[in-house]
Specification:
The structure holds two protein chains of two kinds. Chain A is an all-alpha fold. Chain A has four helices and no strands. Chain B is of the alpha/beta class. In chain B, helix 5 packs parallel to helix 6 and helix 10 packs across helix 12. Classes of the chains: A mainly alpha, B alpha/beta.
């Protein structure tokens, strides 16, 4: 049987509106230029004694996406690091 | 010599005892006939699903596992109040709850990063699984999920409850009946960019002192996700803003709406072969996709309720004879020629209830439910491929047989994400 469309008030949507935006990441924890670095620049970060844990993590993550053989030794050196090993794999 | 039939008859006959003798009322389900459930990581959404599970007569929820003490206690209190006893047990380690032989199935509603590994671990422990969406963090996760539930012969229901929503089912019926004509284009509304940008941040928040482990086990909260310093915003839901924990707006809603498109159009066993990203990270954004048979799939940022005000998680089907669109407000918009066919449908909350009831019934029947792992894998792979195309900023082509992109090596490297030790899929 053909019936008219349901015109009752709509129930609340199942999906919830998201919460307020999170705090802004501090400058030292922003990926910035690392997101577009080439292999040579990534190698520089990964081998640098001055690079921070965050910079090495992000450089390793991008290196994993580029998958350059040239970066394998630098990434392998990070595999023993409790925090960074996941980024290097 | 007694026949097999006679042996079975003699063995079974003494076991048949009228339920009235056991003091059972009409409609009462014996404890041995109930599916026994546990829960892992039930926050606000998980508690909502649990509220439906507690309505199932032939289900019994007996245990909760969570890395957050306040969550464990809240769920125990909710369950004990519903049953009028104190039987719900609390755990902080998923292996302890999964070791319980009396538990048949688990409800998983952790953050996305845990969904695939936990579901697979549960299957390895012989449990059936109802898991919230998105079900996976990568293309590789998605395939591993489907393979595990096939290998261990367990049942899996993705939290894609709209498959059991009457207004969505009606749209599927319209396509199947031929009323819409030949299928041309499917539209899946994806998470609005104002809520979830298509590309989440890869930054970290500033570290703060860890709370005591009995209050929050941060290491277990992170689980398979890459390590980062603790910040309370993550555990309050802020994790959805970060790539390491989330797949952006495409996965957030696409895991529902792309899933609906696949289900409605009989595409549960495949994925599109082309993905064209359009837009920026501040939206609105689109990903135009095409299947091998020429049908188009448009993932679109159409705002929260959609331009036609059909509600969140809307989808639309266009054929050469007409179109139809619906969402969480349950109202159905359509082309004029379809209007005479419209009928009243159930209110939206029934979809979740039907979905949970379906899973419990399928467990008793040992039959795969509607949103099973294989179907979820295909719809999630589609979303992940679109997400990767959006991140790469270029049109990607996909070989469904080889499960690889054919025109971008970096995109292929992004099909998987490393899991933190010791977690594996």
């Amino acid at each position: 049987m053909k019936m008219p469309q349901n015109t009752q008030p709509a129930p609340a949507p199942a999906a919830k509106a998201p919460a307020a935006p999170p705090p802004t990441p501090p400058a030292e924890f922003q990926e910035g230029a690392i997101a577009t670095m080439d292999v040579a620049a990534l190698k520089g970060v990964l081998m640098s004694a001055q690079a921070t844990e965050f910079q090495k993590a992000k450089a390793a993550q991008r290196a994993g996406e580029l998958a350059s053989k040239e970066l394998v030794p630098a990434l392998a050196a990070m595999l023993g690091d409790e925090h960074l090993s996941v980024y290097a794999r | 010599m007694a026949t097999r039939r006679q042996v079975l008859k003699s063995a079974v006959a003494p076991m048949i005892v009228p339920s009235l003798v056991l003091g059972q009322r009409a409609g009462h389900v014996a404890p041995s006939d109930k599916v026994v459930w546990g829960g892992i990581g039930l926050g606000a959404r998980g508690a909502h699903v649990l509220s439906k599970l507690l309505m199932v007569p032939d289900a019994r929820f007996v245990a909760i596992c969570d890395v957050r003490n306040e969550r464990r206690e809240f769920i125990k209190s909710t369950v004990d109040k519903a049953y009028g006893d104190s039987g719900c047990q609390m755990y902080g380690d998923q292996y302890e709850i999964l070791a319980r032989k009396d538990i048949d199935a688990v409800l998983i509603a952790t953050g996305d990063r845990w969904h695939t590994p936990l579901s697979i671990i549960a299957a390895q422990h012989g449990k059936d699984v109802y898991c919230e969406k998105p079900c996976s963090m990568s293309i590789e996760d998605s395939w591993a999920l489907a393979a595990a539930f096939r290998r261990y012969n367990r049942l899996y229901q993705a939290g894609c409850q709209r498959r059991n929503g009457a207004n969505f089912q009606f749209c599927k019926e319209l396509l199947e009946s031929g009323a819409l004509g030949k299928l041309k284009t499917l539209y899946a509304n994806v998470g609005p960019s104002v809520n979830w940008p298509p590309i989440p941040s890869r930054d970290w928040l500033a570290g703060e002192p860890l709370p005591p482990k009995q209050v929050l086990d941060w290491d277990r909260w992170l689980g398979p996700a890459p390590w980062r310093p603790y910040h309370p915003s993550y555990v309050r839901g802020g994790w959805r803003n970060f790539y390491d924990f989330h797949g952006g707006g495409i996965l957030e809603w696409g895991s529902h709406t792309v899933d609906l498109c696949h289900w409605a159009a009989g595409l549960d066993e495949t994925q599109p072969v082309e993905y064209e990203p359009v837009g920026t990270n501040v939206g609105p954004y689109f990903v135009n996709c095409k299947y091998a048979n020429g049908v188009r799939l448009v993932m679109r940022d159409n705002g929260w309720d959609g331009a036609l005000d059909t509600g969140s998680c809307s989808f639309r089907i266009e054929g050469d004879l007409g179109w139809v669109e619906t969402g969480d407000k349950t109202k159905i918009e359509c082309s004029p020629n379809i209007k005479p066919l419209l009928r009243v449908t159930e209110p939206a909350p029934m979809a979740l209830q039907n979905h949970v009831f379906e899973m419990n019934a399928r467990i008793k029947e040992r039959r795969q439910p509607s949103a099973n792992a294989a179907a979820a894998a295909n719809s999630h792979v589609t979303c992940h491929a679109a997400f990767i195309a959006y991140q790469r900023g270029k049109t990607l082509t996909w070989d469904t047989a080889k499960a690889e992109f054919t025109n971008d090596d970096v995109a292929n490297n992004m099909r998987s994400r490393a899991l933190r030790e010791p977690w594996r899929i």
